[in-house]
Every structure is written in structure tokens, then in C-alpha cells.
Design a protein that fits this description.
This protein has one domain (18-278): Vaccinia Virus protein VP39 (Rossmann fold), CATH 3.40.50. The protein is built from eleven helices and eight strands. It has helices at residues 24-31, 39-51, 55-75, 95-102, 115-124, 143-148, 150-155, 179-188, 208-220, 232-236, 267-270, and strands at 81-85, 107-112, 132-137, 163-167, 195-201, 243-244, 250-251, 272-278. Strands 1, 2, 3, 4, 5, 6, 7 and 8 form an eight-stranded mixed sheet that branches. Helix 4 (95-102) links the parallel strand 1 and strand 2. Residues 1-14 have low confidence and may be disordered.
């Protein structure tokens, strides 16, 4: 057996499930009230919630941002292809469900590196008959493998616009892995008229002592440890050279959220930035 880019053991999906180590997808599932998680995920989730008590609100608002962004892209921008990396365990309002409710012919490729996500995605992420969905077991830190995957090539036409979805995943990529270069490689494979959709946790709203604790954890915790929080300027760098869609970079709770029911959480309670931008 070999080890993949996440440090997990490569082999069959069941071989790679380590229930003793928290995984971001399963921890996120726990915050959203799901049941597809283990004790290690719940303990890790509770530890994060102790430092950042509104983390569940942040997770919920991030999911709502995904829904609104996909709705905008499918309804207003006319996008019919989505590449969703860091899919997470399926829940309500998955990318293909939102998009295909507007345009049934939409084609979606999901990418994640957790075997539990893989199993659930194959079972639950079923397409409309007019469209298509596919799933790739791969890591964001291997963009060339993602773009070259035969399943992606069968599902998505890379000569036509694609929405690259990097929702709540970039903060799991530490600086030493050069997340900006990874995003650039993915965007370089897409044609003009494509879009980048991203959200990212930030320490801009956190008390200094908690922000520093998060930085230390990100340095020492490995790929499944603490996340790499970034400032607004650092997050905005991911959109360099692209045309930001109004309202630009803002809180996930505020991005085109006029239709959301109140009361709405503050930017500090959510502590996540979001943005959508077009490749010209």
C-alpha cells in the first residue's frame, strides 16, 4: 500500500477509513447535525466549538452560500458544468440538486479524498436523467490528476465554461503546499467564461489569542488538524486576474443573501469570506 497526499493509506476505500483520526468532511457533517461521523470527529468538532462557539452557524451559512452561488451561476450566468472539489458528505442542497432544479441538463463532477464521502456520494449524488454527475476520489493538492481523470473528461467538456467550486476547502491547504498555485493550475485548465467560487475561514474577526492559537494549530496539526486561517487580502489573492461578481469578497452570510430569512448572523459570528469571480 502507498500513502496519498493527505497522509492516509491508499488502497480500497475501507482500508483508508481511520476512525481514530478526525477528518474535515466528517467534522463538518457533525456541525451540520449529520450522523456520518465518528467519536474523533465529534471530539475535534467540540474542541473547535469551544474556541469558536458559533462554528455551527458558520457551517450552516457556508452551505447557504453554496446554494446561492450555484443558483446565481445556473440561473443568471447560464453555467451548465460544475467541478466541485472538497465535496463533503452529501446533505441538503448539493451542487447538482440546486443546478439541475434550474437546468436539468447540468453536468457536475464531485471531488473528495475521504472514503466515507466517496461511498455516500456514489449512493446519493444521483443526477437528473437529462444531466450527469460523477465522482473522483482525489486530492485538491493534485490538480493535474483531477483535470486528467477520465471520469471528469467523460462528464465535463473543458472547452465550455465550468464553475470551479472550492467551498470551505482552501483553508485545509497550508501555505507550504502553495494553495494559490494549486488554484492557478485548476483555472488554467478552464476556458474563458468559467467561474471560481470559494469560501474561506478567517481570523480577521477572532480575538488575538484565539487567532494565534489557530495559527499554531495549523502549523502543527497536519492536513487534518487546525485550519489555515487567512486574512481578507490573502483570500482575495485567489481571485487575482479574475472579474469578481458583485458584491465582491464579503462574508458568506452576506453574499447575495437578500432572500435569506432573518435574523442574520454577523460577519464576526461566521468568520468566513466568500467570493465568486469570472475568467475573462
Amino acid at each position: 500500500m502507498t500513502t496519498d497526499a493527505t497522509g492516509t493509506t491508499a488502497g480500497s476505500p475501507s482500508d483508508r477509513i481511520d476512525t481514530s483520526v478526525a477528518h474535515p468532511a466528517r467534522r463538518y457533517n457533525y456541525w451540520l447535525g449529520g450522523k456520518d461521523n465518528f467519536q474523533a470527529d465529534r471530539e475535534s468538532g467540540d474542541a473547535v466549538a469551544e474556541a469558536f462557539p458559533t462554528i455551527r452557524t458558520a457551517a450552516q451559512e457556508n452551505r447557504r452560500f453554496l446554494r446561492r452561488a450555484v443558483d446565481y451561476l445556473a440561473r443568471e450566468a447560464g453555467v451548465r458544468q460544475f467541478l466541485d472539489i472538497g465535496t463533503g458528505i452529501p446533505t441538503a442542497d448539493n451542487t447538482h440538486e440546486v443546478a439541475q432544479a434550474i437546468a436539468p441538463e447540468t453536468r457536475v463532477v464531485y471531488v473528495d479524498n475521504d472514503p466515507i464521502v466517496l461511498a455516500h456520494a456514489r449512493a446519493l449524488l444521483t443526477s437528473s436523467t437529462a444531466g450527469a454527475t460523477a465522482y473522483i476520489d482525489a486530492d485538491l493538492r493534485d490538480p493535474r490528476r483531477i483535470i486528467a481523470d477520465p471520469e471528469l473528461r467523460r462528464t465535463i467538456d473543458l472547452s465550455q465554461p465550468v464553475a470551479l467550486m472550492l467551498v470551505a476547502v482552501l483553508h485545509f491547504v497550508p501555505d507550504e503546499d502553495d494553495p494559490y498555485e494549486l488554484v492557478r493550475q485548476l483555472l488554467d485548465a478552464l476556458p474563458a467564461g468559467s467561474f471560481l467560487v470559494a469560501s474561506h475561514a478567517t481570523h480577521d474577526y477572532l480575538p488575538p489569542e484565539i487567532a494565534e492559537e489557530a495559527r499554531v494549530g495549523a502549523r502543527n496539526g497536519g492536513p487534518h488538524g487546525m485550519i489555515s486561517l487567512r486574512t481578507r487580502d490573502e483570500f482575495t489573492r485567489f481571485f487575482a486576474g479574475l472579474d469578481l461578481v458583485e458584491p465582491g469578497v464579503t462574508s458568506v452570510a452576506e453574499w447575495r443573501a437578500q432572500s435569506e430569512r432573518g435574523p442574520r448572523p454577523s460577519a464576526a459570528e461566521v468568520s468566513m469570506y466568500a467570493g465568486v469571480a469570472r475568467l475573462s
